[in-house]
Every structure is written in structure tokens, then in C-alpha cells.
Q: What sequence folds into this?
């Protein structure tokens, strides 16, 4: 279970960021600023600053959301939770381990490097130049 340490006051988040992070909402496909963004760097959680993903593992999955085939230091950064919110479509939710914020989902249809696709909402990650 995540530690649930919100280091960023929820009042500093946009309404969309709060909805996704705290209520597990999903931004519209293709609407996020990081879907087609490929600059070198790291991606951190907007809720607490935890480093989540590297640009080195980002790829274009064609899904409309930023996709990564591997999390950075997964044991320290994310938590996987079974998600049965959609009938007949079990998924695995991905949450930030530090602040318990909803990030997206991980699917088993990723590239050969890992076989996994972390499908992440753009609004809950922040790009940091290395």
C-alpha cells in the first residue's frame, strides 16, 4: 500500500490533476501534452515529485497516452493494484507509491524489452530535464 504522503498541496493541482490523482479519472486520449513528447529527461509525479519514468523507456504505443515499457526503480516508485472497475475487463492500476496518486494502468501488450505498457495520464506527470 502506498504511504499517501501528499507533498504538494492539492490546492496547487489543477482540477484535472486532482480528478485523475485522487479519484482515478482518465484524461481523454490524445489530449495530454506528453503523448507525442520525446525530449530526454525523467517524468515525476505532480503530486509529490517522485521519479517515475525515464524518457529512455518512453515509446509511441498509438494509444493516445504516454507509454513506457518500464518504471524507474519500481519497488520505490509505483504500486500495482488489480482494477475490476470495468466489467469483463480486468486491468492493473498503477499508483504512485509515495502519494498514492492514480497514474494510469499497466498492460501486458508492450514492446519486447519488457512486454509491458505503462499507459499514463499526461496531467499527473511532469517532465524534468536530466
A:
Amino acid at each position: 500500500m502506498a504511504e499517501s504522503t501528499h507533498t504538494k498541496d492539492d490546492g496547487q493541482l489543477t482540477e484535472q490533476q486532482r480528478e485523475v490523482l485522487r479519484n482515478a479519472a482518465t484524461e481523454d486520449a490524445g489530449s495530454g501534452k506528453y503523448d507525442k513528447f520525446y525530449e530526454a529527461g525523467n517524468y515525476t509525479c505532480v503530486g509529490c515529485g517522485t521519479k517515475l519514468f525515464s524518457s529512455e523507456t518512453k515509446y509511441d504505443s498509438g494509444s493516445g497516452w504516454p507509454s513506457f515499457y518500464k518504471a524507474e526503480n519500481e519497488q520505490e516508485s509505483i504500486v500495482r493494484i488489480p482494477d475490476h472497475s470495468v466489467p469483463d475487463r480486468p486491468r492493473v492500476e498503477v499508483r504512485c507509491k509515495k502519494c498514492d496518486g492514480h497514474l494510469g494502468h499497466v498492460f501486458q501488450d508492450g514492446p519486447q524489452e519488457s512486454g509491458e505498457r505503462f499507459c499514463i495520464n499526461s496531467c499527473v506527470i511532469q517532465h524534468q530535464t536530466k
